[in-house]
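Task: sequence design from structure.
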């Protein structure tokens, strides 16, 4: 993963969108899990930018498996006075003696880098241990970064998934999905003021270009001049939120989300995988070839992974500020340097 600071204009955008939330968190000491990953970099760099630009004095303890590696890869974060690194595993880290007012539990990736059952164990036991620490430190609030996968996969009966959708993950098909739902339940049953962020799909600097993320792969292919290859029929519907919006939404949920309530986090602008490939090619390399192996059947309804964001919009004033074409352009520009 390319390691360099995020765009300053994006960090300023986060501050503009979440300024009131940062003020509401003034003087907080935050315990952050998952701080060295895709989401974590955006959260930490936007926090440090807010500290520099305003008088909010936020402090953050970052749980990391390898503190030395993080210092080497991202020294502008790791060496900041507001940041304290705690080395350990989310399932059994030593509990800090310092009091923390807020917990932002964003550990574990989306399931593509390790055995799924090991990942599920990490999700559940890690959440259990984080909740134990939250009680020990008497944290005022916890934000759990969950996933839209808790609604289940292959949804075809609706076009947008609301927080009230009655679906649930299939335990026979994805241990990751069921573990995220179990972790949500642990948070809601803990007695701690917990807010759930059900995150969908995202794009922006630091999105892996060679992993299990469709848009990341499409951007990587377009930048390298490789043919975009879709193994399915290209009909599934997705949506993508740019990472400056994601960071602003998470800070707002931590500061202002209603307790014991779930909020979808993502864009509600649906696009098919085939159209996404076409848009990426048109934006970055118009002559790029696109190969779609499957044939779409006219009588088949497209599976959707697109959230309704009406709850976040109406209760917290959150909205999408970066259109998808601009998001693709900005992501590629950051990688090109």
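Answer:
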């Amino acid at each position: 993963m390319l390691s360099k600071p995020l765009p300053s204009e994006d960090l300023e955008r986060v501050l503009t969108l979440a300024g009131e939330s940062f003020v509401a968190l003034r003087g907080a000491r935050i315990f952050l899990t998952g701080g060295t990953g895709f989401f974590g970099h955006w959260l930490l760099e936007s926090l440090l930018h807010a500290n520099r630009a305003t008088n909010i004095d936020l402090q953050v303890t970052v749980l990391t498996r390898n503190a030395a590696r993080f210092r080497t890869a991202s020294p502008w974060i790791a060496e900041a006075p507001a940041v304290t690194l705690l080395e350990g595993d989310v399932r059994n880290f030593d509990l800090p003696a310092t009091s923390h007012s807020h917990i932002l539990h964003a550990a574990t990736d989306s399931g593509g880098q390790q055995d799924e059952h090991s990942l599920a164990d990490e999700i559940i036991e890690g959440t259990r241990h984080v909740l134990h620490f939250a009680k020990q430190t008497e944290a005022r609030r916890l934000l759990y970064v969950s996933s839209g996968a808790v609604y289940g996969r292959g949804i075809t009966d609706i076009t947008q998934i609301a927080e009230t959708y009655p679906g649930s993950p299939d335990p026979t098909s994805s241990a990751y999905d069921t573990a995220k739902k179990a972790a949500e339940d642990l948070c809601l049953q803990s007695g701690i003021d917990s807010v759930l962020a059900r995150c969908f799909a995202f794009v922006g600097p630091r999105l892996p270009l060679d992993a299990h993320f469709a848009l990341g792969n499409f951007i990587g292919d377009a930048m390298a001049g490789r043919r975009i290859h879709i193994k399915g029929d290209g009909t599934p519907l997705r949506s993508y939120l740019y990472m400056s919006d994601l960071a602003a939404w998470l800070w707002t949920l931590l500061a202002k989300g209603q307790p014991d309530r779930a909020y979808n986090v993502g864009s509600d602008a649906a696009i098919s995988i085939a159209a996404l490939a076409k848009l990426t090619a048109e934006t970055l390399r118009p002559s790029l070839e696109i190969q779609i192996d499957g044939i779409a059947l006219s009588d088949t309804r497209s599976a959707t992974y697109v959230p309704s964001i009406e709850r976040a919009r109406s209760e917290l004033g959150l909205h999408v500020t970066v259109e998808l074409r601009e998001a693709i352009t900005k992501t590629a520009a950051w990688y090109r340097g």
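The chain has one domain: 8-203+241-266+307-323.
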